[in-house]
Amino acid sequence: MKQYGLYIDGVWKNADQGAFFDVTNPANNEMVGQMADAGAKETRQAVDAAYRAFPDWSQKAAKERAVILERVYDKMIEQKEQMARLMTMEQGKPLAEAQGEVQYAADFFKWYAEEAKRIYGDTVPSSSPDKRIWVLRQPVGVTAAITPWNFPAAMITRKVAPALAAGCTMVVKPAEQTPLTAAFLMEIMDQAGVPAGVVNLVTGTHADIIGEALLEDKRVRKITFTGSTEVGKLLMRKAADTVKRISLELGGHAPFLVFEDADLKQAAREVLASKFRNAGQTCVCTNRVYVHHRIKEAFADILAQEVERLQVGEGLQEQVQIGPLIDEKALTKVERHVADAKEKGAKVVTGGTRITGKEWDGGCFYAPTVLLDTTQEMLVEQEETFGPVLPLHGFTEEEEAVTLANDTPYGLAAYLYTHDLARAIRVSEALEYGIVGVNDGMPSTAQAPFGGVKESGLGREGGKYGIEEYLETKYVSVSLKSK
Which stretches make up the Aldehyde dehydrogenase domain (predicted)? Predict the structure, then answer.
């Protein structure tokens, strides 16, 4: 069992009252570790440390910062197996998925080690021969990251890596369900030589108190958050009081459009890859499938056959492909969505029940589910289910499918499958989403911009775009006139 304190100014320390909270495995409800339970005072101490560390870190040569980020990448790969196992125990995802996440998370350090060297300014032509105009890019300052439980490594590194590359310092507040992976990351960054105070970790069960301390502190110049739209709106309102920069990666409600010319087996594989990763607990996973009426029944049969082969269980077991939901609250929401769909006329093709008995007792397991003939009135088409439920809705015309896909306040990710190039271009341009996968159910990668439109967020993470979120633009005008 792991027990971690807070990581502040390069030192592990207990919360001031000595309080800890338990971290449990959602597959069996057994305790896997404990974390220090912090409040506002410890959060301010973390901001103090980040504020003190900022001048030295921001003034380091970009190459120096790059070398350190490269070392973080190397250390993460060296300890990939340990981190993956810890992640599976506290979050529940299958070990193979956890290993994939560690690689994905490490890739952000690799990418931003290079981007650190490419923070360029400009020389702007002046309107006067005795003036020079320079444009400089400088780090924002102290930043704070609030991260979710579904990707406990990648959602941190996707924020920390560009922040450090730009010369910012950071305070990280991970989700209380999965703080052990965050602590493991702090150990790795310490081993890699990230200076004291550059990254700090504050954990606790009172997210509102910690968040308030970060939002009220004028020294924190940027908040970056991944989580629910509801909380994102609250942060956005409160960030206005000190005019902080804010990046938000919020809820998704991703549609997947399958057109009549699709290779049904390949389209099914892409839908499955998108939908059932992490038991459907990803913000970009397919939440609604719109399939052409001509192929709807055949596609449902293929999906059902594939879904019934999926192995559900504790993530460290061999052959397991679907782990548990994160907690009982998440499981109850899935049950409510399926019950609502059935009451309103949807057909359960496969699944549709909680899994209990034998090794599943004590865990939050739900059978991978396919629903046929869902409608817009059903919760599965109105809300993000965040579970292993795949609703199928028929359509006839391309315009109808696009209209249905866009009929939501969310706009994070969308997918389509077609072999018609003209249609792929038309539809991908018409979809009101920040990310579109064309014949690709898993488009996320470190070098591409990740983020949404509408109520799915502000800003982008990943690629050259991600570092822009941590840079200010300064205009310098120099007069060459002599006395």
Answer: 12-476
Residue 201 belongs to what domain range?
A: 2-250+456-476
End-to-end CA distance of the chain, in Å? 72
User: Pick the catalytic residue: 97, 115, 176, 249?
Assistant: 249
Residues 338 and 238 in one domain: no
Same domain, 228 and 288: no
- In this structure, the strands spanning 369-372 and 389-395 are parallel
Give the C-alpha separation, 436 to 415, whole Å: 5
Provide the whole-model pTM. 0.96
Q: What is the CATH number of the domain that holds 136?
A: 3.40.605.10
Output the DSSP codes for 364-383: --B--EEEES--TTSHHHHS
| 468 has catalytic annotation | no
Taking alpha carbons only, the member of 430, 324, 449 closest to residue 25 is: 324
Which pLDDT tens digit goes with each residue over 273-321? 999 999 999 999 999 999 999 999 999 999 999 999 999 999 999 999 9
DSSP E strands in 269-309: the ranges are 286-292
CATH of the domain at 394: 3.40.309.10
Cβ within 8 Å of residue 399, ≥6 positions away? none
133 bridge partner residues:
124, 477
Q: What's the structural domain count of the chain?
A: 2
Point out the catalytic residue in the list 42, 115, 176, 283.
283
